[in-house]
Every structure is written in structure tokens, then in C-alpha cells.
TrEMBL record:
Signal sequence segment: 1-19
Record key words, sorted: Signal
Record has Signal as a keyword: yes
Domain of life: Bacteria
Region Disordered, residue ranges: 24-77
Originating species: Chungangia koreensis
Protein name listed in UniProt: Lipoprotein
Ranges of compositional bias, category Acidic residues: 45-68
Amino acid sequence: MNLKWTSLSILLASALFLAACTSDEDNTKQKEDSTTEQQQPSEQTDGEQKEDDSTETIDEPVDDDSSEEPALREDEASLTYTLNGEQKEEIGYLTESDQQNYSLYKLDGYELTGEEPNKDALYATENDSVFMRIETISTDDADYEVILKNMMETMAAISIDEEPVTITEEGKLPAGEGIKNAVGYEVPKEIGTISGYVFERGDLIVRLTIFDRNDANLTDALLKMGETVNVK
């Protein structure tokens, strides 16, 4: 894919997303089986005396639900987005990343491809200069605050002499089941707008960067696909 944001895209790609990774933490779980002793009397055949001389040990099984697999995602999902002031509803199709541990619902007219290690690009097939960079990492391998700070610094570097605009308007931040701590910034440019987002969902920290053009205005469509990112 020939991405055309030249120096802006190169600058953003140089941000070391994985440099924020912290050391893994090992988690262990222990479970103990319960043992019940029961003594039953043994009766003598001559009827003269009885002795309790038998002991029975019963091992009761312990139910372990910790290994239960997550529910499979449906193959399709309805996505609603706004384009040039008009609300549209289309079907997104479940698509898995080839190099990262996530899947998302992709609308027709877009392609998902590996851009570089641990980074994917979801781009418009009719205009590949409009795209969304997707980076994900396990919460075991990184700290949310560090990833957020890295995104903010990158957006500040892109904006040069101006402060990035904090996204606060309802509907312009990632939202949906399981999404938390969503933060976004945008940097208006002459040819379009660059938007950066960070949020958590389950065991993933997700970072999205959208490169839009004024003649395309696909930020909301890309964001709606981006907020469906979840573990495979």
C-alpha cells in the first residue's frame, strides 16, 4: 500500500509503541481438593461386639471454570457511522489481524494489512491515503498510562506549534461494551485531520491513529470499525 502522508506518517510511525512495555508479571492460581473422612461401623457375626474399624476417604471433584473459553464472536455485525452529516448503517465482517492478537468488524471498501511489526493499517480501497493505524498490546506487557503518554507526546510533536485538540464530544470517542479509559486527541492540518485514541478492552490496550483527508471525511467510519477491536 502506498501511504501518502509522507513526513507526518513517518514521524508518527517512529513513535516506539512497544518501548512502553513493562516486564511481564506472572500470575499463579492454586486450588485445593477437599477430603472427607467417614467411619462406618463393622458388625460382628456373633452379635457380641461391634467395632468401628473402617475408614473411607472420598475425594470430591472441584469444578474449575477458570479455563472456560470466551464466547466466539459473530461473523457479522451492524455498524452505524456518520458521513458528511448523514447517518449510515452497514454490515461489518469479522476480520482477524495476521500479526496481532485481535479481530475487528470491517466494512466493505476497506482493507486490513500489516504495516510493520505490531502495527496494522486499515485503509480505504478507493483512497489509500485515508487509513487507520492499529496497535494492540496485552495489559500484561504494558502500562496504560505509559501508552497514553506516548500517544499524547506523538500528537504534540505532529501539531508542531499548536496544542492537540482534546476530543470530548459525545460519539467521537471509542465506545462500546467492555471499552474503558478512552482518550482522544486530534490535530487539524491543511489537507485533513490526524486523530489519536487510546482505550482498554479486556486484556488489550488499543491505540488507534486515523489519517483522514478533507475530501474523504472517513474518520467516523474508521473509528466505528476501530472500536470493535477485541481479542481473537
